[in-house]
Amino acid sequence: MRVRxxxxxxxxxxxxSVEHALRWVGAEPVLVARPAELVDVxxxxxxxxxxxxxxxxxxxxxxxxxxxxxxxxxxxxxLGICLGLQLLFEGSDEDGAATFGVLSGRTxxxxxxxxxxxxxxxxxxxxxxxxxxxxxxADADFYFVHSYAGGPRAEATELVLAETTxxxxxxxxxxxxxxxxxxxxxxxxxxNGLRLLANAVALAARAMGVSGPGAAEASA
Amino acid sequence: MLRRRVIACLDVAGGRVVKGTxxxxxxxxxxxxxxxxxxxxxxxDELVLLDISAAPEARSTLLGxxxxxxxxxxxxLTVGGGVRAVDEMRAVLRAxxxxxxxxxxxVAEPTLVARCAARFGRQxxxxxxxxxxxxxxxxxxxxxxxxxxxPTSLQAVKWAEQAVELGAGELLxxxxxxxxxxxxxxxxxxxxxxxxxxxxxxxxxGAAGPEHMVAAIRDGGADAVLAASMFHRGSHTIGEVxxxxxxxxxxxxxxxxGAA
Lengths: 220, 260
Prior knowledge:
The complex is a heterodimer of chains A (220) and B (260).
Chain A: E1 4-8, H1 15-24, E2 28-32, E3 43-46, H2 52-61, H3 65-73, E4 78-81, H4 83-86, E5 91-92, E6 105-109, E7 118-126, E8 139-146, E9 148-152, E10 160-166, E11 168-176, E12 179-182, H5 190-208, H6 215-218
Parallel strand pairs in A: 1-2, 1-3, 3-4, 4-12, 5-6
Antiparallel strand pairs in A: 6-9, 7-8, 7-10, 10-11, 11-12
Chain B: E1 5-13, E2 16-21, E3 24-30, H1 32-41, E4 46-51, H2 59-70, E5 77-80, H3 86-94, E6 99-102, H4 104-108, H5 111-120, E7 125-133, E8 141-145, E9 150-155, H6 156-166, E10 170-175, H7 187-194, E11 201-204, H8 210-218, E12 224-227, H9 229-232, H10 238-247
Parallel strand pairs in B: 1-4, 1-12, 4-5, 5-6, 6-7, 7-10, 10-11, 11-12
Antiparallel strand pairs in B: 1-2, 2-3, 7-8, 8-9
Helix pairs in contact in B: 1-2, 8-10
């Protein structure tokens, strides 16, 4: 049985590329636009580019804010990509939106950045070991497209899985239990990105007790 | 550290890859999705699909091509050509593109840049500027549109600044003088623009070898270098370009394939 990866469709962009990449690593992607579509989902993937307020507004209109909050509270597997990571924090300075607030901290503009948005490939430097990064170099390159980044509060540094430098150093991957977030775009990061997605799928399979593709076989 | 990007560009018309000299005299160079996959495997940091036919009846062909490409190529994909409205941009993004390049339509209706940026975020909006050196006194560049055929009264550097104010997240700067000539990018044009804007500048038009790419980044301040026919014809590979950038001390994405 394949891992069903529910991709939340909140109207901001790149659901299609996330869908293709998840299929490539052996998951069964489904789009989630309504609460009923969360049924049978093993891994919730929150993609997205852009700012938090319109995304939260669309999630609210579709009745998904409560179900996603419940999903996170139950520590079910969640992978936030870019905006999907930022939504985990309490709020965003980009437009003042209040977000899910399951992680302590805020989304803030990148500091001292020589160019904004931060667009391109950059090194994701591991701060602690985590199975999401199994098989990846400790400073592997991933593709970024963003101007803001979610930042844990100083007392919540245990959330930090990896950091990246563009001007100042910012947090580029977080994790707590089965809640994971990456500021970069694995679906656009060639082999490294496919490997990370395969790892997430394998972790979800383990968490949900379904048989999924192992990370190694899925990214081969 | 942020890497300098090497971008392979596929000019498409009627669902096929073409590349002309000075935007005319097109020659057929193959199937875009196959070529895109090949470039991604060879280490292209990003791909650009430019629909140079941009005829309204070709939209569904283009969307199908974007979808086919995005289903097997997992590097960023920018699509340009013929997008004139927010809804058209939405369709291209939903087909699997990450960014849309606006050119003629942005010049004709600058608020389109702002509306697209408001809807999809500025990171998804690339403004493509085709520039031609002013013949008199050699001072400055003018913007040309409609595939380089129609001059405008816009000054390229000013338009670049205005486009960024409106919401462009990147600028794709093509020298029409150099395009297809294999005489190198217009480094002065790149420098004039990159000095004035805080968004990444992609160099385009005229690359024939790795040394041109090094110059565009080192002297022109470009964040990324784009080439089409140089890669299509195989005169230089993406790996060669990356090794040249690395040798010049510029940060590139590793590993570089074909390093043997």
